[in-house]
Amino acid sequence: xxxxxxxxxxxxAGIVLEAGFWIVISLLAGGMIHEFLPTARLRAAxxxxxxxxxxxxxxxxxxxxxxxxxxxxxxxxxxxxxVRLAAVMAFAVAxxxxxxxxVILSYxxxxxxxxxxxxVFGLVAxxxxxxxxxxxxxxxxxxxAARLEPCCASGAxxxxxxxxxxxxxxxxxxxxxxxxxxxxxxxxYIGAGAALAGVLAAALPSDWISHYLGASAxxxxxxxxxxxxxxxxxxxxxxxxxxxxxxxxGAGPGAAIVFLVTGAATNLPEFIALQRVFGTRAxxxxxxxxxxxxxxxxxxxxxxxxGYRPLVDPIRSLDWSDLAARLxxxxxxxxxxxxxxxxxxxxxWGFARxxxxxxxxxxxxxxxxx
Amino acid sequence: xxxxAPMRRPEQRWRLIAAVLLWLSTTAWAGGGVAAESxxxxxxxxxxxxxxxxxxVAQFRQDxxxxxxxxxxxxxxxxxxxxxxxxxxxxxxxxxxxLLKSASDCHQGGRVVCPAQLLRQLDxxxxxxxxQLRAVQG
Lengths: 370, 138
Fold this sequence. Notes:
- The complex is a heterodimer.
- Chain A has helices spanning 2-36, 41-47, 51-63, 71-80, 85-97, 100-110, 112-137, 143-148, 167-203, 208-213, 218-231, 236-248, 253-265, 268-278, 280-304, 314-327, 333-356, 358-366.
- By secondary structure, chain A is mainly alpha-helical.
- In chain A, helix 1 (2-36) runs parallel beside helix 4 (71-80) and helix 1 runs antiparallel to helix 9 (167-203).
- Chain B is mainly α.
- In chain B, 83% of the residues lie in helices and 3% in strands.
């Protein structure tokens, strides 16, 4: 029992420690986007109704080395700044799934064919999911999104020109919105998701990845890998060596692709945060689309690369792995710890605010109109 | 005929000595190659034990990098046309090194803290390379 509790706490703390730096950067960037994006060209590019806006979002996401927790504040800021939902969802999926370091490491350890499948799926899936969600969920504002939206009068929500304010004042307002509004609101959901991810990690057998990646019933194993992978916190770069070792030991290539993409794309903290901001329908379409597409891609890869074993040239593999390591940002320990503490503070603040609002929510429920 | 035989004896002796020297140098070179791989695997086992024992992450990262450079030397010395068994061994050693690099990326409070799945895979990969090393030696 105590071992399970320690494991749960360790997994939850590990998520906050690993993602903390990127959550802080994302909140900072989110504040800037919310304050300055209406006057920037980026908004116009991503707000186009055609496919180019969504393609641009996928391209931008594929270049950023941010994990699935870190991307949440950025995606929410884009959405609240008026960027269309298809582009926001495409960006939210593409960013954690694919980045230059992951592609290079995949080429070094998984070989060219599986890397091709990974890149094609990693670029096509976000594009399609963006459209699924936009078409299916409509443009409804959830209460959480509405509460975040009118915060800053000169932000994206308003069409009026802001009063004359200096850049320093706008910068301060961006920080205030990013860390004072968005931070605690999303912190509550990220904290709840991290705690649930800890429970799930403690409940799952420790060898589930090797068990299901090498399972003899291909479709069942693809489904289980997709569902578990989508719930757990998986970083693509860190898990490629594990997948490569399992493939060399006989795992199926389809399950490997499913694990890499669904695992990196989503996790419980992201589900909860996105559900609160974009609504249940949008998140169900998002998860359903991701799992459905990954099953299709996994089945196709299993047929195309039946009996696949990575065929790599040893010296080139070492050189490419070095390049991938150089492209992977290493966050210094003190910075990572300070960021994790800041995120923990935001989680606590969000939780305190949630407790504080319970009486007013109860009053609304018990009032004659409520 | 009986006179010619003693005349050839010193030549034969030198030939025999040359053959023995050639054989010794070849086996010494081959043994050295396997010895380098064997030593590398022993060090890798030490690193796996360090990961399990929550080693200091900065030192662990340095050791993993040193280990990777040793591996690069081993692979380079082998040349462009290794035997399939040796090539397979080197690929498995590269995978073990990549797993150790992943282990060096999981840390909490300055100590290496790896998920159970990664530790299990490290153990399995050590077994794989040991088996392949025995196949190359045998």
